[in-house]
Amino acid sequence: MPKVSLEQWSMLITVVEEGSFQAAADKLLKSQSSISYAMQKMQQGLGVKVFEHKGRKAVLTDAGQLMLQRAKDLIHAASAAEKAAADFAVGWEPQIGLVLNDMFPKHILYAALTEFGQQCPQTRLEIYVEVLSGVDDKLRHGEAQIAINHMIPSGMVGEPIIEMEFVRVAHPDHPLHHIGRAIHHSDMKLHRQIVIRDSGSYRRENRGFLGSDQRWTVPNMFEALELLKLGFGSGVLARSIAEAAIDAGELKELDIDGGGPSRSNMNLIFADKANTGPAALLLAKLLKEAAKNDKSGRM
């Protein structure tokens, strides 16, 4: 059995924070004698001197400094255990899964996760990043309860969360920029295209492919971005991903005949909304709020 109770550890912390036994007694609504007795019993149980008195102040010894940090750790662990029990009592799931399309803006995700971590610290969160139908796979296999993707799978419920813009780009020195007229699809087929591989197990969609015999396939938009900046071909990127490179002169939008930037909704999707637990519903709510409150314009 422990020789020191959690109440005594808590008193130790309060004495240090308040600066004296009397101030701690006032804070805890106890008598000074009860605080002094508890600290005396603590020191006897530990076998070390925790405090020494300098005037009216109680000052920690070197051993006391070490005990203070351990006391804070113990109180934090006890509070976390109580929070976990309370969460389970109201039905918080022990673990949930979130799967994202690779181009979903990360700053929106991080804003939502900041709030989720504070409000639901005991729920483990598995985050997956997939491309195209790979998002659907995670939902259908039960690995994720909520998703963000451009397509809503049949039988599932979803709603738009943000609208994203897509641009076809190439390095400023790429031959397509020097044709001297608006670019036709037939022009683009004559040059290498950088396309994004579908991470799904069954359906294979290649994002941005226009039928060129010259094709390099990469796992996500961020790899495509690097190849495009190096001048290896043309390809489609989310404006939020391409914007910095465009502003820096590393990429340039292609002047496509009859087709400028395209737009598409990203949807918040539930695998089974009727049976979605409170932690997953909270995360979905926070994602919607983060998207609504975003002022960056990076879409």
Structure description:
The strands form 3 sheets. Strands 3, 4, 5, 6, 9, 10 and 11 form a 7-stranded mixed beta sheet that branches. Strands 1-2 form a two-stranded antiparallel ribbon. It has 3 domains: 6-89, Arc Repressor Mutant, subunit A (Orthogonal Bundle), CATH 1.10.10; 95-162 and 265-293, D-Maltodextrin-Binding Protein, domain 2, CATH 3.40.190; 165-263, 3-Layer(aba) Sandwich (D-Maltodextrin-Binding Protein, domain 2), CATH 3.40.190. The protein is elongated and about 90 Å long. The protein starts with 5 loop residues before the first helix and ends in a 6-residue tail after the last helix. Helix 1 crosses helix 4 and helix 5 (106-119) crosses helix 10. The chain has helices at residues 6-18, 21-28, 32-46, 62-89, 106-119, 133-140, 185-188, 221-229, 239-247, 278-293; strands at residues 51-54, 57-60, 95-101, 124-130, 146-149, 157-170, 193-196, 215-218, 234-238, 252-253, 262-270. With 299 residues, it is an alpha/beta fold. The longest helix has 28 residues, at 62-89. A hairpin with a 2-residue loop joins strand 1 (51-54) and strand 2 (57-60). It has 10 helices and 11 strands. Keywords: DNA-binding, Transcription, Transcription regulation. Residues 4-61 form the HTH lysR-type domain. This is Transcriptional regulator, LysR family. InterPro entries: LysR_HTH_N, LysR_subst-bd, WH-like_DNA-bd_sf, WH_DNA-bd_sf. Belongs to the LysR transcriptional regulatory family.
Helix content: 40-55%
Gap from first CA to last CA: 58 Å
The helix count comes to: 10
The fraction of residues assigned to DSSP E strands is 15-25%
Basic shape? elongated
CATH class of the largest domain: Alpha Beta
CATH-assigned fold name of the largest domain: D-Maltodextrin-Binding Protein, domain 2
Question: So, CATH architecture of the largest domain?
Answer: 3-Layer(aba) Sandwich
The largest β sheet comes out as: 7 strands, mixed
Number of domains: 3
Which class best fits the helix and strand makeup?
A: alpha/beta
Number of strands: 11
Radius of gyration, CA atoms, in whole angstroms: 29 Å
